[in-house]
Amino acid sequence: MLALLTAGVLAVGTAPLWGAGGGDALDDAALSATPTFTVGLQSPQDPGPFPGSVTPTTPTITIAGQRDGESTFKVVKYDQVQPTAPGQMDFDHFHTGIEIQWWLKKWAYEHPDIVDLYIVGESYSGQPIYQLTITDKSTGKDTDKPAAYFEGNRHSGETSSAESSLWLAHHLITKAGKDRTVDKLLDDKTVYIRPVNNPDGHNMYLYTAQTNRSTVRPYDNDGDGKRDDDPGEDINDDGYLSQMRQYVGAGKGTHVVDARDPAGNAMLSVGAGNGDYLMFSEGIDNDGDGRYNEDGIGGLDLHRNYPYNWHPMGEDDATGRNLTQGGAGEYPLSEPETKHVYTWLMSHTNIAAVNSMDTRVPMHLRGPSTCDPDECMYKSDRKLYEHFDKAGVSFTGYRNAGSVYIDYATRNGGDPEALFGHGPDFGYFQYGAIWYGDEIWNGGDFTDYDKDGRWADWERSRWCAENGRTNCFLPWTKAQHPTLGAVEIGGINPKFWSQNPSDDLIGEWAANQAQFNLYLTQSLPQVDLTRVQVKKLKGNQADGATHEITATVKNTGRIPTALEQAKEVKIVAPDTVTVQGARRVGDAPQFYLDGGDDQKVRLRVVKSDADTVTVNAVSVRGGLDSTSVRLN
């Protein structure tokens, strides 16, 4: 178990950073039995001085879970996670869990008028999962306003998404009171930001050489009956798990140095018996099956664990012949990180826009994930999504935008392919919201030199060489492998070029993505009482009414108060108008408003003792608006 509580180092909540975890069943057995933190709203507290170290001060950390391979790994102090000036926010480095939690607590302490900090639950290992609520509290409760939800780092190594979440939070908090656009947004709307949904994986990635697809829960990736029994080993102790090449002589290998790469970094597969080298991923064949690192830490996918159209993993399909989904988990919402997203959303249905961000296509990615949008989406909903696709590209310049089933699956050719249990599908088909799962960063794919529509390592290396970059690829260095003998280790930087940008580029990518998320927030539905009139009724009315109130309600937002899909699944109650201070007679008005549309309603009321009444426009996702009128 990792100890972080050394002098000057921030305690991560009051819970251990890594729990013991474990158990064979994919259930809640790994969660801490008695958490030492309180789930819910956190009291603002001064976090104290900036941490003395943004990485653990112990030589190793142990990853939660009972596995058949190694769980304890050496701590790496990457230059890419060191702040330029401790205690000053910058986006020229990647923020570790230690630093992120310091900033979240600092913001909540210093800006209690607009920031609340929550622990929404605990991760697989028992770590607290933090989330910000950002809105101007003086203009109403967060749940009384239209809201957007943004989430980063669901997948362990996709740390760029955490940076974009932090960029947006920092922008809103530091611009409040100084920028009229931000002030107006926080007056009217709420932004929920969960920078790191998967703290176990995020910390493993930034504190050790290890990486994985999504969650650290042990899983048998290679089907040999053992879990996590073949992780990578950092043979040359440079902090990365990269590639190994072994020179075996001309015509005896599978690869050659790619002659198209002026820097000599890239390798080219030419087939068995045609190359000079054999290639391996860096590590040891721990299970002796002839493969390297095929069963590393974890293996489930938190973005295949949502309830809509969830399918079991292949090994759990008793028929052996149905469509299955790799990484789906034991059952929908089996993973605590996904469950905590679901429970927050279902208890905060004022949320109308979501972005649960990943890396690295790059793409503005959305549903549907199992069907053609033209066939399975309401036309008006689809058109709205297509608008946001184009808007997103205008902010980010991403090469791709559109649905998982069509645009993502066929971006490199081929036929549409279904993906099950996907967050954006739950978000649209069950939650009835605009939900993206955007993919930040391009993997270093800047120039397609041979114009074939694809990018290879030689093109990535050439671009870096032409742009004076020496941090894209790790130099090939000689090493002695315990079983292979003499090898060279190097290749593309797996953490800070292949999967995420280099530290000097992350700020630009984080900001561009955050600008699109701001646009989504500004597009939220917003009900506005544009005109309210009162007419005193003459004589005795059959229903006893004494006055008639005419009110016009306008949706000033771009997004409807309920998508057509939301109406179908009845996730959003109709909009209405109510009166306080007088008794309404007759049925309450019910309606939904498209973006920019208005609705004129009439309410018949019986005057009470009060001369002044309050008329309220009420919308689940469009918020509230009210005005006072006199019953003359």
TrEMBL record:
SUPFAM superfamilies per the UniProt record, alphabetical: Zn-dependent exopeptidases (SSF53187)
SMART domains (UniProt xref): Zn_pept (SM00631)
UniProt-listed PROSITE patterns: PEPTIDASE_M14
Keyword presence, Protease: yes
Domain of life: Bacteria
Keywords, ordered alphabetically: Hydrolase, Metalloprotease, Protease, Zinc
Cofactor: Zn(2+)
Biased composition (Basic and acidic residues): 219-229
Region annotation Disordered: where it falls in the sequence: 211-239
Similarity annotation: Belongs to the peptidase M14 family.
UniProt name for this protein: M14 family metallopeptidase
Natural source organism: Micromonospora azadirachtae
Source species taxonomy: Bacteria, Bacillati, Actinomycetota, Actinomycetes, Micromonosporales
